[in-house]
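Sat 14:20. Reprocessing the chain from the morning session after the first attempt stalled halfway. Input below, unchanged.
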Amino acid sequence: MSQNEVKALVFDVFGTVVDWRTSIINECLVLGKQKDINIDWSQFVDNWRAGYRPAMDTIRNDSADWRILDELHMEILLGLLKSYSISLNSDEIIHLNKCWHRLHPWDDSVNGITRLNSRFITATLSNGNVSLLTNMAKFAKLPWTCILSAEIFKHYKPDDEVYKGAANILDLKPNQVMMVAAHKSDLLAAKSNGLVTAYINRPYEFGNYSVEVEDVEKDIDIWASDLESLADQLECN
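Finished this time. Tokens:
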């Protein structure tokens, strides 16, 4: 891996750049207080997230019609509201579903991306749809150079088309693009398509401390504790 060849960094967003779990739990706690709903909101949010991969896999593997992530999140949410016997009006449901647009960044994310912008193009490469990622960037003050999304390629990660498409749309060779993520499966898929890879350690993504990747150095090009550390390693001011 030659860092000198890299021109652009593309980022997984959920978990890597933003703390989705804490953000959504906090919104749900406010809703619960307003509506006098007493449930384990942490479990509710974990169940919501747990439906994410199976919903996408119906499109990736079962030839279901393409739908953006907002629609998949809504489908999962409606099922959860029914199973928990929670009654909300349509406006409340829409607002709750769009909590995924209002996620707070990890403490290092904004400054880390700002520093990386001094040397590189920075772009999202997320399964989130374009409007979701755009609204999130504004809400969280994330200074992306551009927004790339699975929606553009009509494929969800880890399909090859997403990684190849990102390099192509930036008019770069795959080895000029670095995939930055906190999830090894994402990075290995990117690596198999010729991208350079950087692992960001986010041990609190799912609440309790956990380290997803062991011996990551043998599979991934760069290991970093956070985005500030990545900027240090890439010699960004």
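The mean pLDDT is 94.
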